[in-house]
What we know:
Elements: E1 3-5, E2 15-17, E3 21-22, E4 29-38, H1 41-47, E5 57-58, E6 62-70, E7 82-85, H2 95-98, H3 107-111, E8 117-119, E9 122-126, E10 136-140, E11 144-146, H4 153-159, H5 162-173, E12 181-185, H6 189-201, E13 205-209, H7 213-221, E14 226-228, H8 233-241, E15 246-251, H9 256-264, E16 266-274, H10 288-294, E17 297-300, H11 308-320, E18 330-335, H12 339-348, E19 353-357
Parallel strand pairs: 5-9, 12-13, 12-15, 13-14, 15-16, 16-17, 18-19
Antiparallel strand pairs: 1-2, 3-8, 4-6, 4-10, 4-19, 6-7, 7-11, 8-9
Amino acid sequence: MRAAVLHEIGQDKLEVLDDVEAVGFGPGKVKLRIRATGLCHSDVSAMNGVLPQPAPFIPGHEGAGEVLDVGDGVTGLSEGDRVLVCWLPACGACPSCKRGQTQLCLAGFMNAGTPNFKRPGGDVFGFAGTGTFTEEVVVGAGCAVPIPDDVPFEIAALIGCGVTTGLGAAINTAQVEAGSSVAVIGCGGVGISTIQGARVQGAAQIVAVDPVASRREAALRFGATEAVSPDELAEAKQRITAGEGFDYVFEVVGRSATARTAYENTRRGGTLCVVGAGAMDDNFQVNMFELFFDEKRILPSMYGGGDVLRSYERAIALWRAGRIDLESMITHRVRLDGINDALDQMRTGESLRTCIEL
Length: 358
């Protein structure tokens, strides 16, 4: 079968090969035929080593498709079912799951160390234990979440990561209050979803911050009340909040420098929500006096900060009701052979989300 493979960490191009085989099928597993997958910035972060991932590997974790086969002991799934890929399934038994913090379950991460593909030259890993830049993949049954018939594969794929992450940051983690002021730093797919989440929550002002003009323009279409470049943020803060700072600031880039900017633009007693996934050696610093004196809440948000199955259902309900726009988030569509063009479009900021159709 065909798949896009990164041979070594640090390479910036994927090679589309036709000699890849999905392996590992057995009890508790399902084999999926991927129909659509989104290109998420986390895929690029794994390719360049910001996020740890063994290589060679197949990127992609934001996917949807059909069940081809079901292993022994799997219940609730049948051949032909339409599903989205959950890259962080909950085991239901660990301390995090028992506390109701299923987004912190580590069972899914353990899968990342087991190859689920092979080539004539050896084993190949799937990113985050999945790997959706491929025609077929074998995953644990918990990674395959049934979707209603009226949800297109490309919409389901987005809900599988970026939409759930951004919406959840605003709704679950920060719990944005109606009438509040919000700034979102970084307006790719996850940032746009965060803006939509803040709008759903009833924020009065939503300022989108991004260096790319096309992304600023897009943010306005998705609910931002205004959009500024990073060097215009200080003026917006002064004008909108009289210099006090925003009630909520979301960092959706994954860098300490932008997290520090977000902190400085959060009002005293306000909330900084860190959504971007960054590197282990990139340290965010605050001094002990400001930490105490400003009483700003610093809230990381992992995969939307809530139960992902409930978050999927909520996203579908909001989409059906016309409260969020997911179709327009897909700015580019490519076949698997166009994956490197899609990567370039993401790196330059030209795309919000690219859908790879398989």
